[in-house]
């Protein structure tokens, strides 16, 4: 009977289809509790014979290893046994198997053995495991039979990477790209094996933590290959978790505290890594490291880790951002603001360093964090750093990446509002940048500039208002000179379309793709530089309607500033005239902005003032409501709904009827739209 049951279990575990093997593992986990010791022993021997046989297919080895792991985990903990010794030797032997899934399963089995014997498995094979990791940390490609295909793939990849540049005859850049992204033989599975063994032994692994082990892990954390770094931080996360056990508050015996300075330094580097996957792996390890220590002991490492955790709360990669926010809640609790003020020097220093990062997403997050300092942190704590922070933001104002420019613009506005005296000396440099962003090609950048300029008016009042209002009038009036759409593509040749011209404009000329912008597989955006005032490689000249669009945003923001309400009211006829021009295709975008801005403008000016000027915009709003562009029509519909809520539906209806009774039908149809 034993033979039939063993044959059934082994048959399922060693099936060719992965789905069948997975089902067999689940079934084994459910039924193993009812197996007799003799049946378990027979099953172990059968599975051990499969993984020890070098002629067994990899599918059979993989299933057998998964089955053995389940059996080991369900057996009673014991220090040493003959079957465990045999399993250990067999698993170590196939750690270098050609199939990655077999190597992964072998590492999981060794981790299960460590869990059962308290780390004795690691103690017995420590030198072998660490030697495997060490030998694979530095990749060496040879021409032996086992690596010829790999060497050929490397050569072909490097040729492709270097083929696009005719001027560069060497393949150094291509070699670096390969070096940074390629797999590293058995290194990942070897390190995963080490991770499983550490996690299996848990607190019982603490006696095995020494400087040699840490040096090996640190070597992986600083490796040039991002996959190696990511795996290294996963191992580090398992290692620091060993310190989170009862009695860890005895710092003199806690390796996490003893080696904490080294760990925090490398974790800090990972938190600032250019690759989001590495940054996330380091974030996981950092939380486990900090939570493994008593609260008072953590502060020793805050100068390094706190600023990086704080910045990653705004990082563009969602996984990093959400994990960092939760880590901040767990570590800082309700004392986050106080901790930032306490370590303000370290925080400011890192934020400024981050504004100089090669990764544009890091620069954007840094600008958002600097803005947070102005809004949330006590002014006395930040005041001494204002000049340095404003200088860093001014540099980011000229960034190639528009999200960075937008974040820098909004942050500058916040700093000017909170520190008007300290910012006074930089205003001469900032004014042109604000107005450049106000006519940017990106709508959200224009809107951000409007918010920032409104803060400037709040800070300096009527000293700057006349200049800003004059520019607003000029920008709104300029729409009448906006070229028609037929002139938009003036850089193309006139006359009959020649295939060769269009072909060159698209993608078939190698010169268009040589020495051009590089894109990263870790980000959808290009590897943009920090740029400069005259560096506009990624920006086209602004259109006149875009400048007017920015001033519509600005008018709605200034309407809520008490000192500016009267001047904005005087500009309303000019704004109404600007949106009447429809000789260019993009006029519907300007109308969309108007419809989005009118409710905000009405709230700022007040109902009494706005009612007297509502008629100026009714033609534009109802034109937008009836247009074919869905976004513009929707914005007009929402505009009417919000104005109706503000003024009252009867007042709005009366004003519309007085202006043009033919609009009542459209107004009544729009009244069924639910309020926002």
Indicate the structural class. Answer: mainly alpha
Kindly provide the radius of gyration, computed on alpha-carbon positions and rounded to a whole number of angstroms: 33 Å
Straight-line N-to-C gap = 71 Å
Beta strand %:
under 5%
Q: What is the general shape?
A: elongated
The total of helices stands at 37
Q: Portion of residues in helices?
A: 55-70%
Major beta-sheet overview: none
How many E-type strands?
0
Low-confidence stretches: 141-182, 486-510, 517-527, 532-537
- Please give the oligomerization state of what you see: single chain
Keywords:
mainly alpha, elongated, Leucine-rich Repeat Variant, 68% helix, 676 residues, 37 helices, single chain
Q: What topology does this entry show?
A:
Layout (H helix, E strand, L loop, with lengths): L1 H12 L4 H14 L5 H16 L5 H17 L7 H12 L6 H18 L2 H18 L10 H16 L8 H10 L5 H15 L9 H11 L4 H16 L13 H4 L1 H12 L4 H16 L3 H4 L3 H11 L5 H15 L3 H7 L1 H11 L5 H17 L2 H4 L3 H11 L5 H17 L1 H4 L3 H11 L5 H18 L4 H13 L21 H7 L38 H15 L6 H14 L8 H19 L1 H5 L3 H12 L3 H18 L1 H11 L4 H7 L6
Helix pairs in contact: 1-3, 2-4, 3-4, 3-5, 4-6, 5-6, 6-10, 7-10, 7-11, 8-9, 10-12, 11-12, 12-15, 14-15, 14-17, 15-18, 17-20, 20-21, 21-24, 23-24, 24-26, 24-27, 27-30, 28-30, 28-31, 30-31, 30-32, 32-35, 34-35, 35-36
């Amino acid at each position: 009977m034993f033979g039939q049951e063993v044959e059934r279990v082994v048959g399922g575990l060693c099936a060719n289809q992965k789905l069948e093997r997975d089902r067999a593992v689940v079934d084994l986990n459910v039924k193993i509790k009812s197996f007799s010791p003799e049946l378990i022993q027979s099953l172990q021997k059968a599975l051990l014979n499969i993984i020890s046989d070098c002629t067994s297919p990899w599918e059979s080895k993989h299933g057998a290893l998964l089955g053995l792991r389940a059996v080991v985990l369900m057996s009673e903990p014991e220090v040493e046994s003959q079957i465990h010794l045999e399993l250990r030797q067999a698993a170590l032997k196939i750690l270098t198997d050609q199939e990655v899934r077999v190597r992964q399963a072998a590492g999981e089995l060794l981790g299960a053995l460590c869990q059962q014997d308290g780390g004795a498995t690691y103690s017995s094979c420590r030198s072998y495991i660490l030697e495997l990791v060490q030998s694979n940390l530095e990749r060496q490609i040879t021409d032996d039979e086992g690596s010829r295909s790999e060497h050929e793939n490397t050569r072909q990849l490097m040729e492709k990477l270097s083929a696009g540049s005719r001027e560069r005859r060497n393949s150094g850049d291509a070699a670096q790209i390969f070096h940074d992204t390629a797999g590293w033989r058995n290194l990942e599975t070897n390190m995963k094996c080490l991770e499983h063994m550490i996690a299996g032994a848990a607190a019982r692994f603490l006696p095995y933590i020494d400087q040699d082990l840490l040096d090996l892990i640190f070597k992986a954390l600083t490796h040039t290959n991002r996959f190696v770094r990511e795996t290294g931080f996963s191992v580090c996360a398992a290692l620091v978790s060993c310190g989170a056990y009862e009695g860890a508050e005895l710092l003199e015996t806690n390796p996490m505290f003893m080696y904490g300075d080294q760990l925090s330094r490398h974790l800090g580097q990972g938190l600032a890594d250019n690759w989001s996957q590495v940054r996330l792996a380091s974030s996981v390890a950092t939380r486990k490291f900090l939570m493994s220590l008593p609260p008072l002991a953590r502060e020793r490492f805050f100068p390094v880790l706190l600023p990086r955790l704080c910045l990653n709360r705004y990082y563009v990669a969602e996984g990093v951002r959400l994990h960092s926010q939760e880590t901040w809640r767990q570590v800082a609790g309700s004392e986050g603001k106080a901790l930032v003020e306490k370590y303000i020097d370290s925080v400011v220093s890192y934020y400024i360093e981050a504004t100089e990062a090669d990764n544009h997403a890091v620069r954007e997050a840094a600008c958002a964090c600097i803005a947070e300092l102005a809004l949330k942190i006590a002014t006395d704590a930040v005041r001494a750093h204002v000049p340095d922070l404003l200088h860093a933001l001014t540099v980011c104002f000229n960034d190639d990446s528009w999200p960075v420019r937008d974040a820098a613009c909004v942050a500058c506005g916040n700093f000017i509002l909170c520190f008007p005296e300290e910012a006074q000396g930089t205003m001469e440099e900032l004014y042109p940048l604000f107005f450049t962003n106000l006519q940017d090609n990106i709508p959200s950048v224009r809107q951000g500039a409007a918010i920032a300029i409104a803060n400037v008016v709040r800070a300096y009042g009527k000293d700057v208002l006349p200049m800003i209002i004059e520019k607003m009038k000029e920008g709104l009036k300029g729409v009448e000179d906006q070229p028609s759409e037929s002139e938009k593509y003036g850089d193309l040749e006139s006359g009959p379309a020649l295939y060769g011209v269009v072909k060159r404009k698209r993608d078939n000329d190698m010169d268009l793709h040589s020495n051009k912008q590089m894109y990263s597989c870790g980000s959808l955006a290009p590897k943009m530089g920090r740029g400069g005032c005259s560096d506009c490689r990624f920006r086209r000249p602004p259109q006149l309607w875009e400048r007017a669009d920015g001033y519509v945003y600005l008018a709605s923001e200034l309407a809520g500033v008490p000192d500016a309400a009267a001047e904005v009211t005087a500009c309303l006829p000019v704004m109404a005239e600007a949106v009447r021009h429809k000789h260019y295709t993009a006029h519907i975008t300007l109308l969309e902005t108007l419809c989005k801005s009118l409710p905000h403008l009405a709230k700022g000016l007040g109902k009494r003032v706005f009612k007297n000027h509502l008629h100026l915009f009714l033609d534009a709003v109802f034109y937008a409501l009836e247009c074919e562009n869905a976004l513009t029509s929707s914005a007009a519909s929402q505009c009417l709904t919000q104005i109706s809520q503000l003024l009252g539906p009867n007042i709005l209806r009366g004003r519309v009827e007085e202006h043009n009774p033919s609009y009542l039908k459209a107004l009544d149809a729009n009244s069924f739209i639910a309020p926002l």
